[in-house]
Specification:
By secondary structure, this protein is of the alpha+beta class.
């Protein structure tokens, strides 16, 4: 037992020694020297292998020592010395050797197991590295990035093809989730954030497509991301992981495809040509564009689902059937002319093409039709136009010819042949220079150079020479026709003979000289203005009249010198004359105007206007005459006339009073005496009584006539009752006296109307009624007074035989003259309109304010 205990102690000491040596070897890097791979392992498993190896080395060393001691050589050498001692420990040595072998076997098996494990892990590591390389290659090839985020710490880890997706320099990226969100496009961040929150709340997959941006240069990339959440047992999300694939190219392809489809759809819809898609099986319309509706009148809703035969579009349905058969036979239809009919039944012509395509396995005909009806019409119009041009070319009176690029005559119209004195055959092929006069050669050469540069000539004056040597002055116009390459094909020349025009111009020049002399020597002022009333001509008489030099007057407004009055409310009569589109007015036809000299002096004038159109611009010429002296004479004459009329009225009033108060009273007394005498005669004096009765009637009639004459000479009603009542009474008395009908109408006439106006209008009424009664032959008259705040108007009309007012004014009668003179005194207006068998209308108008002021001024 002591020996066994001793052996066990040795084994224990052996294990401790091996562990100590292994530790020492590890510290001195002996194991690293033996196998460097072990030293690089950080997992700890290869440290156990180091210890086991040291254990094995120690055991082998001790075992070799023990075996050596037990060998015959060793025993023969040491046997005499230790015979006694070793006998006691032989059994212990055997146990020690067995223990060493057992330990060696156990350690060997352990080493083998560890080495197998190491080999297996190395293989797994190799496969893992290979798989990692394959995954990295796949992610790089597929432009894929994986991510994992710890929701508890807020950290995120990205790996994969970050260079291609995010533009980074590394294939891994670690940071806070908030920091990594900066790679997401700003416009997509909110949407992605909402999708993450929704997937986390609903425990669904996170699936989104969004844009990321390279921080370095802002390059956007589209990615498709899928991810999921990992939840703890408490249900709280603790981790999120997933993959993102770069789909920029796919999105670009989709966008390109979408744009291509939109372009095709837009081209189909917006094409100016009619595009249709029809089934080649049953001919039904599948799709039509807007141009189809414009051309045929059928809308898409009306056409789709129906056939051309249902709509009656093809004028020849058999042509449609033949078209489909040719397409099904593999033929491509080009430049097919068709006749079709619109919805409203109009026949149209078209040309088109068709191709067979397949849609969902069904053969369909894609057709395009262009409406060439207008082209056909244009072609016909072109032919007609060419015929018209030929007719025009042959009949135009101007000299026309066509020349080649080299200047040779290709065609000449009859007018040119006649003017030049040549036959057409004689002129064809000649150079252009042959028809021009020698003195025009230099200018002709310059004109040809100009024509070659610009291709056109406009109103170039030159001289041509006829066959007989006669010179004719012409305006030359030329134009050129170019081919599509810009090369000159031919030129057309039109010559307008201005020989007579030049002679006329010379005569006009002479007349202009005479006109200028007339203007310069005229005693009346002559002023010409443009449409804006700016003075452009101011003759010497105008300079003298207005005390202003022409250079100071030209360019100024006409209103500086000529005004209708010195009140701003009155428009310029010259401007109104221009607006009236009247070409001329004689002196005296315009209202009285006032002019102002340069020194401010005002004076009355008469003016005549004329309008001329010069090169599209209107010019107004005013001839002004100073009527200051005549106006003074007229005013003096008017004063005399007024005093004469007033004296006449006073005489009429005196006569009326004498007739009424004296003569009429005597006649009345005579009538009373004759009646008393007749009463005292005996009844038997029948003859005397009858004679006295007759005299009594004559006296009574004479009294009535005297009273009427008294009223005509001076109407007391006019003085006390006003114009309206006096005029109505006069019409009534005249109607009763002469047995005629007078329709009297009157507005409310102011009772405070000035006496001059009331008397003037009353006398005009009397004169007009008496003239109508005497000359018209009518028994029906109309009298109307109209009143406004500005004037009073009298109208006297009849439906008689009519007369010529101008001839009547020249006759011996003074009635019309008397009416005009009376109205002139109150600034009134008088007109007569009449025609044969059309009656006559007398109109009188008196402006109240002006007449009132005039009357007061006269007083």
């Amino acid at each position: 037992m002591p020996s066994t205990a001793n052996a066990s102690g040795k084994v224990s000491r052996l294990h401790n020694t091996a562990s100590f040596l292994a530790s020492a070897f590890n510290k001195t890097r002996l194991i690293q020297y033996l196998n460097p791979t072990f030293a690089n392992d950080r997992s700890g498993q290869f440290g156990d292998i180091r210890v086991k190896v040291v254990h094995v080395v120690i055991c082998v060393f001790l075992l070799a020592r023990a075996v050596g001691r037990a060998s015959p050589a060793y025993q023969s050498f040491t046997e005499p010395l230790i015979a006694v001692t070793n006998q006691q420990s032989a059994q212990a040595n055997r146990q020690f050797i067995i223990s060493c072998f057992s330990l060696l076997l156990a350690q060997g098996l352990t080493i083998i197991v560890l080495l197998l494990q190491r080999a297996s892990k190395k293989k797994i590591r190799t496969e893992l590295v290979l798989s990692n390389d394959r995954l990295r290659l796949a992610m790089e090839t597929g432009k894929t990035v994986g991510w994992e985020s710890d929701l508890l710490t807020g950290k995120a880890f990205l790996f994969g093809d970050l260079r291609a997706m995010l533009g980074t320099t590394s294939d891994t990226l670690t940071g806070k989730v908030e920091d990594l969100n900066r790679y997401i496009h700003p416009e997509d961040r909110h949407r992605v954030s909402e999708a993450v929150v929704a997937a986390r709340h609903d425990r669904t997959l996170f699936i989104q497509e969004f844009r990321v941006v390279w921080p370095a240069n802002g390059t956007p990339r589209w990615v498709a991301a899928r991810g999921k959440f990992e939840y703890a047992s408490s249900g709280k999300a603790i981790r999120m992981f997933g993959l993102a694939v770069d789909v920029t190219e796919r999105r670009a392809t989709e966008e390109a495809l979408k744009r291509s489809e939109e372009k095709f759809s837009t081209a189909f819809r917006e094409s100016p040509l009619a595009l249709t898609l029809t089934s080649a099986v049953d001919h039904r319309y599948i799709e039509v564009n807007d141009a189809f509706q414009k051309i045929t009148g059928w809308t898409g809703d009306e056409a789709v689902g129906r056939t051309p035969f249902d709509l009656g579009i093809w004028s020849d349905p058999a042509q449609r059937a033949d078209l489909v058969e040719r397409l099904l036979a593999g033929e491509h239809i080009r430049e097919l002319e068709v006749a079709f009919r619109t919805k409203d039944g109009k026949d149209r012509a078209g040309t088109g093409a068709a191709v067979l395509i397949s849609i969902n396995g069904e053969p369909c005909a894609l057709s395009v039709i262009a409406d060439i009806t207008e082209i056909r019409r244009a072609q016909e119009q072109k032919r007609v136009s060419e015929d018209r041009f030929r007719q025009f070319f042959e009949t135009i009176p101007e000299y026309c010819y066509i020349s080649s690029p080299d200047g040779e005559l290709l065609d000449v119209n009859p007018a040119a042949c006649q003017a030049l004195g040549y036959k057409k055959e004689e002129l064809l092929g000649k150079p252009l220079s042959s028809i021009y006069a020698p003195e025009s050669f230099a200018k002709t050469s310059d004109l040809l150079d100009k024509w070659r540069r610009s291709g056109t000539l406009r109103n170039e004056e030159t001289v041509i020479l006829t066959k007989e040597g006669q010179r004719r002055t012409v305006f030359l116009n030329a134009g050129s026709l170019l081919d599509p390459q810009g090369h000159l094909r031919f030129s057309t020349w039109v010559l307008t003979d201005i020989t007579e025009f030049k002679a006329m111009q010379e005569r006009l020049r002479e007349q202009q000289i005479r006109l200028n002399a007339t203007i310069e020597s005229a005693m009346d002022a002559i002023i010409t203005t443009d449409e804006s009333q700016r003075i452009v001509l101011f003759n010497p008489a105008a300079e003298k009249m207005f005390h202003c030099a022409a250079k100071d007057a030209i360019g100024t407004a006409l209103d500086r010198f000529i005004r209708p009055s010195f009140h701003d409310e009155h428009p310029s009569p010259i401007r109104e004359f221009g607006k009236a589109h009247v070409t001329s007015r004689m002196i005296g036809t315009l209202p009285t105007l006032w002019a102002q000299r340069a020194n401010g002096e005002r004076f009355p004038i008469e003016a005549s206007n004329s309008e001329a159109d010069v090169s599209g611009n209107k010019l107004f010429t005013v001839i002004v005459r100073d009527i200051t002296e005549r106006r003074q004479a007229e005013e003096a004459l008017s004063g005399v006339s007024r005093r004469l009329i007033e004296a006449h009225e006073e005489e009429r009033a005196w006569l009326a009073r004498e007739l009424h108060d004296d003569i009429n009273q005597r006649i009345a007394l005579l009538a009373a005496s004759m009646a008393r005498l007749n009463h005292f005669l005996p009844v038997s004096a029948v003859e005397a009584r009858n004679h006295i009765e007759e005299l009594l009637n004559q006296a009574t009639s004479l009294g009535t006539d005297v009273q009427t004459l008294s009223h005509r000479l001076h109407s007391s009603k006019l003085e006390y009752l006003g114009l309206r009542m006096a005029a109505a009474g006069f019409c009534r008395e005249f109607s009763d006296q002469h047995g005629v009908k007078i329709d009297f109408q009157s507005d409310d006439i102011p009772k405070d109307l000035p006496k001059e106006i009331s008397l003037c209008l009353f006398r005009v009424l009397q004169e007009a009624i008496q003239n109508a009664m005497k000359h018209s032959g009518s028994k029906h008259f109309q009298v109307k007074f109209a009143s406004s705040k500005d004037d009073i108007r009298l109208i006297v009309a009849d439906l008689g035989r009519g007369f010529d007012p101008e001839q009547a004014a020249k006759g011996p009668g003074v009635g019309i003259t008397n009416m005009k003179e009376r109205l002139k005194l109150v600034r009134g207006e008088f007109t007569i309109t009449s025609q044969s068998e059309g009656g006559a209308v007398v109109r009188a108008r008196v402006p109240i304010g002006i007449a009132t002021r005039s009357a007061h001024a006269a007083k």
